[in-house]
Amino acid sequence: MTNVAAVLMEAPPIHPADQVDDQTLVTAALGGRAEAFGTLVERYDRAVYHLAYRTLREPEEARDATQEAFFKAYRSLRTFKPGAKFSTWIFSITYHACCDRLARRKRYSNEELPERADPSAGPESQAIASDEAHRLRAAIEALPEKYRTVITLYHLQGCQYEEIAQVLAIPMGTVKTHLFRAKEQLRRILSEDAAGVSE
Amino acid sequence: MKPYDSDDELERALFALPLEEPPADLRASILAATVYRAPLAVKPWEVWAAGVLCALLTWLLLLVVRGGATPTISMISVYASGALALFAQPQTLFWIAVGGGAALWVSQLNLTVVPEALRATRR
Predict the structure, then answer these.
(1) What is the CATH number of domain A126-199?
(2) Is residue B49 assigned to a domain?
(3) What is the tens place of the pLDDT at every residue in B21-50?
(4) Among the four A46, A118, A179, B122, which has the fewest Cβ within 10 Å?
(5) What does the pLDDT look like over A49-92, one tens digit per residue?
(6) Higher per-residue confidence, B79 vs B98
């Protein structure tokens, strides 16, 4: 009993991971506490994978891009500017990793990259398209790459145009335009889809 | 099926959309490549130094095998005196300093850029 009490007294105070902000975790990781970076990975791996998957549309490549992004972030953690948002930084690294992969794909493939995915997929995808979430996902996948990425970041980060502009390295006005057009196209695809089913 | 006529309706649907499910072992593999990665037993410069030493020893061995010990020693002394004469010149030292300084400066630059072709399509 005494031993348990002694261990508990000596144990470091437990803070729920969500209460510690990203900046503190980055500082801790830079100070040699590698597990702090582990908490950042736990916090953002799903969002980063989501962005990579939406940009690349290939689960295997998205997985590799996610790994690459975190590896680059870990190696260049010292270049992270204090006061910046970790999410914006990691999304930016991910986006650049995806751009490199898309460029490589374009270079080594004789075919042009499809600007739009084929919305009239096989019977299997038609069956799951009845589900609203799947329908929306399919519509997002049918968007051109630049609109798809903006919509994905908007979905991940809320309405913060400035952060999306930072991640994509484009002016804020362009972000707004892309977002407007993306939503317009999404609505059109979804209403065409709804009309097609009801006919 | 919803046609999503209004902006609000579409936005609500977008925000309600769950994120893609990553592969089960993704987190473990990221952590293994970063946080739990074993530190290198040797530093990169030590690998380079060992490589250079090995190359020099191989070269010497080949010289000895091909021409015997005496010509090899005389050849090495010629090379060594030539190298010493070269490094004794202030001009050589100046250019080495310039090259080293430039390499150091370039290594400090942040050269992460979006490929131009991709950037152009984004505007």
Answers:
(1) 1.10.10.10
(2) yes
(3) 899 899 999 999 998 887 777 788 888 999
(4) A118
(5) 999 999 998 999 999 999 999 999 999 999 998 888 999 999 99
(6) B98
Map out the domains of chain A as residue ranges: 20-107, 126-199
Q: What is the dihedral of CA A82, A88, A91, A92, to 10 degrees?
A: -80
How far is it, in rounded angstroms, from Cα A83 to Cα A42? 21
- B22 touching chain A per CB within 8 A: yes
Which residues of chain B make contact with A151, given a CB cutoff of 8 A? 14
Ramachandran area for residue A138 (φ above 0: left; ψ -120 to 50: alpha; else beta): alpha
Between positions 28 and 57 of B, the ones with CB within 8 A of A are 29-31, 33-36
Task: Please give the model's pTM, rounded to 2 decimal places.
Answer: 0.65
* Least Cα separation, residue B1 to chain A (angstroms): 6
Kindly report, residue by residue over B54-69, the tens digit of the pLDDT: 999 998 888 788 777 7
From chain B, pick out residues whose CB is under 8 angstroms from the CB of A54.
20
Q: Is residue B74 part of a domain?
A: yes
* Residue A148 near residue A55 (C-beta atoms within 8 A): yes
Of B19, B23, B34, the CB nearest to A50: B19
| ipTM given for this complex | 0.70
| Averaged pLDDT, A21-33 | 91
Q: Which residues contact B53 (CB under 8 A, 6 or more apart)?
A: none
